[in-house]
Sequence to fold (255 residues):
Amino acid sequence: MSQEKILVILPAFNESGNITKTIAEIKQLSFSVDVVVVDDGSSDTTVLEAKSTGVAVVSLPFNLGIGGAVQTGFLYARKYQYSIACQVDGDGQHDVQYLKKILQPIITGQAEIVVGSRFMTEDVMSEGMPRPSRRGANPKQSWRSSAVRRVGIRFFAWLISGLTGYQVTDPTSGFRCFSTKAVIAFAEDYPQDFPEPESIVTARRLGFRLIEVPVQMRKRVHGHSSIRYLKTLYYMIKVTFAILLNMIKKNKAVV
Fold:
């Protein structure tokens, strides 16, 4: 691993019971990274648990949602001049052992944004990048999201791939790494509500190179996802409109 200055952003909302384990796993990595926990107005002991680990903690005064929390992390990364920022969920679902794989294309200059995909195999194409699985899922995956969620993911993969030209397989994945250029851009403007799919459209509009790499994810141990039941349908409708509106936005210069 190179000597890049790397920040891991952990957005967290009521992740008591998950956050300390996630931080401990990051600290056990074979390479050095800094961690900032962005507490998104939690009402439980998330902040106390995060601070007990010794990492940086930024507490938002009230719940802004995942987009606001991640953008706060980008602002932190820009302020302290990190060359790479990675987003890892605070619920423990992301296996941080895959961080090195997600970081590599950023470090080697192959992409500005790299997304960890649950729906790719370990097969490698001739240019050295992962190839989407024809079966639509990683055969080694130990845990899979619900059938309703998988339908939503496939819909957004189809929509975003058609609109942007990116051949994405997991547009809702929040397991990502960003180059300095992407950090600067997203610190200024990042989708606020359910941002992962829409931010891919933003990336294409700004001319960023985006690729996916295969990863495995795990079932959360404590708590539950904020997107459940009927909210999944609301999520799909709202994000679809947001994506279509994003496509007609004017580009901003990225320094």
